């Protein structure tokens, strides 16, 4: 089971991600945050495997948050979630320690695949439903 923390300042998008993650076998949304302070509390309390982090946020820079999260002991993988992907952003995200950059316009299946791949890179075992 891959534990996922969602960080996005848009309430509808955040709620939508929580809902689709709850319905997807092998993935579990352990929390959702609208700001950096809440993200840190949830990160330390829930110990997610993967953080889906909005790139453009009102209160903080997504790349800086990614860098800070990846600097934590036993750091989760970070997927930078963006409406404006570019090669420059992908390069900057990788330098910040992100596992990948995911375009917000992709299907949920593509997002789920990115989450699973990021989780596997950390050595998270697939659930029994995925292994079958």
Describe this structure in words.
By secondary structure, the protein is of the alpha/beta class. It has a single domain, classed as Response regulator (Rossmann fold), CATH 3.40.50. About 45% of the residues lie in helices and about 20% in strands. β4 (about 75-80), α4 (about 85-95) and β5 form a beta-alpha-beta unit. The longest helix is centred in the C-terminal third of the chain and has 14 residues, at about 110-120. The model is unreliable at about 130 (pLDDT under 50).
Describe the structure concisely for a colleague:
This protein has 6 helices and 5 strands, in the order βαβαβαβαβαα. The chain has helices spanning 11-23, 36-46, 62-70, 87-95, 108-121, 128-131, and strands spanning 2-7, 27-33, 50-54, 77-82, 100-103.
List keywords for this structure.
alpha/beta, Rossmann fold, globular, single chain, 132 residues, 5-stranded parallel β-sheet
> What number of domains?
1
**Fold-level CATH name:** Rossmann fold
Computed structural class: alpha/beta
**In total, how many beta strands?**
5
Number of helices: 6
**Largest beta sheet: what is the strand line-up?**
2-1-3-4-5
Rg, rounded, reads: 13 Å
- By CATH reckoning, the class would read Alpha Beta
Oligomer: single chain
Q: Which term fits the overall shape?
A: globular
CATH superfamily: Response regulator
The residue ranges in which pLDDT falls below 50 over 5 or more consecutive positions are: 128-132
Percent of sequence in beta strands = 15-25%
Largest sheet: 5 strands, parallel
Distance between the termini: 14 Å
Proportion in helices:
40-55%
Mean pLDDT: 91
CATH architecture call: 3-Layer(aba) Sandwich
């Amino acid at each position: 089971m891959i534990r996922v923390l969602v960080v996005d300042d848009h309430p509808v998008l955040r709620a939508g991600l929580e809902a689709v993650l709850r319905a997807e076998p092998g993935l579990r949304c352990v929390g959702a945050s609208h700001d950096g302070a809440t993200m840190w509390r949830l990160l330390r309390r829930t110990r997610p495997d993967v953080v889906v982090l909005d790139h453009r946020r009102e209160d903080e820079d997504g790349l800086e948050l990614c860098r800070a999260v990846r600097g934590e002991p036993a750091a989760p993988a970070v997927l930078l979630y963006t409406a404006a992907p570019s090669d420059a952003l992908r390069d900057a995200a990788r330098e910040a320690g992100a596992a990948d950059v995911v375009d917000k316009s992709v299907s949920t299946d593509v997002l789920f695949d990115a989450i699973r791949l990021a989780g596997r890179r950390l050595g998270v075992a697939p659930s029994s439903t995925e292994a079958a």
